[in-house]
Write a structure and sequence with these properties.
This protein has 10 helices and 13 strands. By secondary structure, it is α/β, with parallel strands linked by helices. The protein has 2 domains: 59-137 and 273-303, Periplasmic binding protein-like II (D-Maltodextrin-Binding Protein, domain 2, 3-Layer(aba) Sandwich); 144-268, D-Maltodextrin-Binding Protein, domain 2 (3-Layer(aba) Sandwich).
Length: 310
């Protein structure tokens, strides 16, 4: 082979080697770039997970108890969460007694009650948490006497209501109505309304004939279907029935529960509605309760058929 041929072969081999080196370098650079992008992606995902865990996770507030309060409490929670996405508020009913038991057992943050806590309940709370709890009045209510829309009786005194629900008056003709047996409908004994009505109106044991129902709506529905029925419950539930006027005694005028008669004290079966906590509220729970007591929160009280706390 001549010198020129040898030089040509060497030159071609050199060019091929350089080309292969550049190709290999290009592959290495692209691979390193891919690794860098993958590394950045992994870091970004990890930061996203950490941010979600520490920033996006909402604080949870649990509320349980009074059936009377439950529709108002659900509305409060719904409206509040619209502008406070960092908080989740879970509301359930079951009755005042159920809510207070859950508070004592540590199963709820707030217990809604349509009556005051009993001393025995406070003692259990103190034994477990060394506190008597915190009481917050959040609204007012007038326990309403429900009559069927066909009833000829339009008003009753506190004394007559007590006699009716103790089973001492059993016929409507005894209070100016038809010659028909009175059908009694009421709440179960875990209800704060049951307790309040018993202590302030019945003032004794309920008649054994009184049919107990699991919620105020059930009482309203029963009276609505029974021409000779009578029941009791929160004013906010009084739809599709006749609201009985109530008088303090035989010589007093009779009233239905309204904002004016509740505020003036003229309606004789008026009560506060409460929220109970184990300790003084802090953080998001305090903000929520402060909002409930604010003008915005109390406007919802009126909108939902209850009465403002002040």
């Amino acid at each position: 082979m001549g010198r020129d041929a040898i030089n040509r072969v060497c030159t071609e081999a050199s060019h091929k080697f350089i080309k292969d080196q550049n190709f290999l370098k290009d592959i290495i650079q692209k691979t390193m770039k891919s690794f860098k992008l993958l590394k950045v992606s992994i870091i970004a995902v990890m930061l996203g997970v950490i941010t979600f865990a520490f920033v996006a996770a909402p604080e949870r507030i649990t509320v349980k108890g009074s059936d009377t309060l439950v529709i108002l409490a659900q509305r409060w929670a719904e409206v509040y969460m619209k502008t406070n996405s960092n908080v989740t508020i879970q509301v359930t009913g079951g009755g005042s007694g159920v809510g207070i038991s859950a508070l004592i057992n540590g199963a709820t943050d707030i217990a809604n009650a349509s009556r005051k806590m009993k001393n025995t309940e406070k003692e259990k709370l103190k034994a477990r948490y060394n506190t008597l709890g915190v009481e917050v009045a959040c609204a007012k209510d007038g326990i309403t006497i429900y009559l069927n829309s066909a009833s000829k009786v339009k008003e009753l005194s506190i004394k007559q209501l007590g006699q009716i629900f103790r089973g001492e008056i059993t016929n409507w003709k005894e209070v100016g109505g038809e010659n028909q047996s009175i059908k009694l409908y009421g709440r179960e004994n875990s209800s704060g309304t049951y307790v309040f009505f018993q202590e302030n109106v019945v003032k004794g044991d309920y008649a054994t004939s009184c049919q107990t129902l699991p919620g105020t709506a059930a009482v309203v529905n029963a009276v609505k279907k029974d021409a000779y029925g009578i029941g009791y419950g929160g004013a906010a539930y009084a739809e599709g029935i006749e609201i009985c006027k109530v008088k303090k005694d035989d010589n007093s005028p009779a009233f239905v529960p309204t904002a004016e008669t509740i505020k003036s004290g003229d309606y004789p079966i008026t009560r506060y509605l409460y929220m109970y906590l184990r300790n003084r509220p802090t953080g998001e729970t305090k903000k929520y309760i402060d909002w409930i007591l604010s003008a915005e929160g109390q406007k919802l009280v009126v909108d939902m058929g209850y009465f403002p706390v002040k």
